[in-house]
Design a protein that fits this description.
This protein has about 425 residues and is of the alpha/beta class. The protein is about 45% helix and about 20% strand. Bound molecules: iron/sulfur cluster (SF4).
């Protein structure tokens, strides 16, 4: 427990420094200089209703604004082509990307005509698993559909304010069952460690998932940013981080009977094209309002103000408003975090990538995690142990909380109607 607290503390400090964006850094993306596979992340920030625990970049859906947004997004997509970029993978996240299916289809068609994408992953919610939507998504080449479920427990669904939007646990599982088999991979997003979620509720959810034979399950730890903490505590109670380890152990115990662990929090029955794009791709461009990209060793963020986003793109400029050029040491640490999130890191690969020995830059981290039983080293390859998997869940949780805090900070700067 002490080690977990220490890891959480260090991860929080390090992540805060990653997200200290420098206003002086040139607000553009670097020209494409190598052939490394690059992913295109596209953000659709609209949701029909907002969930109280959610700190993603999302706003309440308004059709007129959303249509203008999609139009601008398609212009931004073409700007990257003009900068010499090509993409092999596409991840559409939200918000709720399927909120306007005709606009999404047009956008995916444009991307397929412009780039050599072979893997397309789209997020959605259970109420959008309609025949029309599924047919459209299939026609435009979606390989992986990821559905936000969080839990099948009716009481918990009511507490997290999803029951009235997406139906009961039974209705959600029926929708999932009829979607299974349409795409190469159907992923179900779940959350563990909600305040009122008991171990029994978790076990029942796991049993439901196993019975459904979902292709892939992503079990996120609850991630609450500073600003949603108050709303969360008021509506749902206090999060007990101390029990996270036992909940995670239960997830691994039950899922490992039928699933392979593919990242610290993702479990697959199939060879899925994209589990976590930060693992599968060294570089990704972030398009859409509030998207964060990582290209050529720099992290950058687009404006969070949707109207400002539309206006900047319509004027022909990239909507980037913050950027941070990582030092070599920070690049090594970033790769160490992301690659091991995918369970394995080849130091030889990392040394070749950066043109200088990886061990010389990472020996304190490697030594620490080997000492606390989180890492095994075989030759030049590092691999997470089962204990290490949970350490990485903690570190990635802190990484995403850091990202969410950054978003909250940016959103607080916006005019109210944005
Ligand atoms: S959890 Fe999903 S549906 Fe709910 S507000 Fe966040 S992005 Fe929207």
């Amino acid at each position: 427990m002490l080690i977990e607290k220490f890891i959480t503390y260090i991860a929080r400090k390090k992540n805060a420094s990653y997200l200290r964006f420098s206003p002086s850094a040139a607000l553009s993306v670097p020209p494409k200089v190598n052939d490394s596979p690059t992913l295109l992340y596209v953000h659709i920030p609209f949701c029909e209703e907002l969930c109280p625990y959610c700190s993603f970049n999302r706003v309440v859906f308004r059709e007129d604004l959303a249509r203008l947004y999609f139009e601008a997004l398609r212009k931004e997509i073409l700007m990257y082509r003009d900068l010499g970029y090509d993409f092999q993978g596409l991840y559409v996240g939200g918000g709720t990307p399927t909120v306007l299916i005709d606009e999404l289809a047009l956008t995916l068609q444009l991307i397929r005509e412009t780039y050599h994408v072979t893997e397309i992953s789209v997020e959605t919610n259970p109420n959008h698993l309609t025949d029309r939507n599924l047919r459209t998504l299939k026609e435009v080449g979606v390989n992986r559909l990821s559905v936000g479920v969080q839990t099948f427990d009716d009481n918990l669904l009511k507490i997290v304010e999803r029951y009235h939007k997406y139906g009961s646990g039974q209705e959600i599982s029926e929708r999932l069952r009829s979607t299974q088999g349409i795409f190469d991979t159907l992923n179900v997003d779940m959350i563990f460690n909600f305040p009122t979620q008991t171990l029994e509720i978790l076990e029942k959810d796991l049993a439901t998932l196993i019975a459904l034979k979902a292709d892939q399950i992503t079990y996120y730890p609850l991630m609450v940013s500073s600003s949603t903490q108050d709303v969360m505590s008021r509506k749902m109670g206090i999060v007990d981080y101390n029990r996270g380890g036992s909940y995670y152990a239960k997830i691994v115990e039950m899922l490992s009977r039928e699933y392979r662990t593919t990242t610290a929090w993702c479990f697959s029955r199939t060879e899925s094209p994209i589990d976590e794009y930060v693992v599968n791709y060294d570089e990704y461009a972030g398009l859409g309002s509030g998207s964060i990209g990582y290209l050529g060793g720099s992290a950058y963020s687009n404006t969070f103000d949707i109207r400002d986003y539309i206006s900047r793109v319509n004027q022909g400029t990239l909507p980037i408003t913050a950027k941070r050029d990582f030092s070599l040491q920070e690049r090594f640490r970033y790769d160490f975090l992301m690659k091991l999130f995918g369970l394995e890191l080849d130091l030889k690969y990392l040394s070749a990538k950066h043109g200088v020995g990886a061990y010389g830059h990472l020996w304190p981290e490697i030594t620490f995690f080997r000492l606390v039983g989180g890492l095994r080293k075989k030759g030049k390859v590092l691999r997470l142990t089962e204990t290490g998997q949970y350490y990485w869940v903690l570190m990635m949780r802190e990484f995403f909380i850091g990202v969410n805090n950054f978003r909250d900070y940016c959103r607080a700067e916006l005019p109210r109607e944005a």
